[in-house]
């Protein structure tokens, strides 16, 4: 399955966000792969600072379990200064996008 979400970057954080992802923790990429996540991409809309993320994962992908992984929470803690986060955690605010068109 393909998944797509939108998140919000804080103003002035573009370069730091990019740098952090260029230096992403190998343990984190391994964790994402353990959950079946692949073909993960994030794009920035420069005027709105919205981040568009898409990835592929199996139908059995368990997003709720991934959100409880200590390493995932550490990554979110380290990124919270650059992004809008939920009120009750450091998890980035994200909104699922609805597929409207796909061409293979």
Description:
- The chain is built from four helices and four strands; from the N terminus they run βααββααβ.
- With 104 residues, the protein is an alpha+beta fold.
- The protein has one domain (2-96): 2-Layer Sandwich (Alpha-Beta Plaits), CATH 3.30.70.
- It has a four-stranded antiparallel β-sheet, with no helix packed on it.
Features of the shown structure:
single chain; 104 residues; Alpha-Beta Plaits; 4 strands; alpha+beta; 23% strand
Nutshell version of this structure?
With 104 residues, this protein is α+β, with helices and mostly antiparallel strands. The chain has helices at residues 14-22, 26-34, 63-66, 70-79, and strands at residues 2-8, 38-45, 50-56, 95-96. It has one domain (2-96): Alpha-Beta Plaits.
Largest sheet: 4 strands, antiparallel
- Unreliable runs, pLDDT <50, ≥5 residues? none
Tell me roughly what share of residues is in helical segments.
25-40%
- The overall pLDDT, averaged over residues, is 97
CATH class: Alpha Beta
3D shape: globular
Distance between the amino and carboxyl termini = 13 Å
Q: CATH topology, what is it called? A: Alpha-Beta Plaits
Number of strands: 4
Strands side by side in the biggest sheet: 2-3-1-4
Q: Tell me the count of domains.
A: 1
Number of helical stretches of at least 4 residues: 4
How large is the share of residues in beta strands?
15-25%
The second-level CATH architecture is 2-Layer Sandwich
Class inferred from helices and paired strands: alpha+beta
How many whole angstroms does the radius of gyration measure? 14 Å
Order of helices and strands: EHHEEHHE
């Amino acid at each position: 399955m393909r998944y797509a979400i939108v998140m919000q970057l804080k103003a002035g954080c573009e370069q730091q966000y990019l740098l952090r992802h260029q230096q992403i923790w190998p343990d984190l990429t391994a964790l994402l792969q353990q959950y079946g996540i692949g073909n993960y991409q994030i794009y920035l809309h420069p005027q709105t600072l919205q981040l568009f993320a898409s990835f592929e994962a199996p139908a059995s992908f368990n997003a709720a379990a991934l959100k409880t992984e200590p390493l995932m929470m550490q990554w979110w803690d380290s990124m919270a200064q650059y992004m809008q986060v939920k009120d009750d955690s450091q998890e980035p605010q994200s909104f699922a996008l609805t597929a409207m068109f796909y061409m293979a």
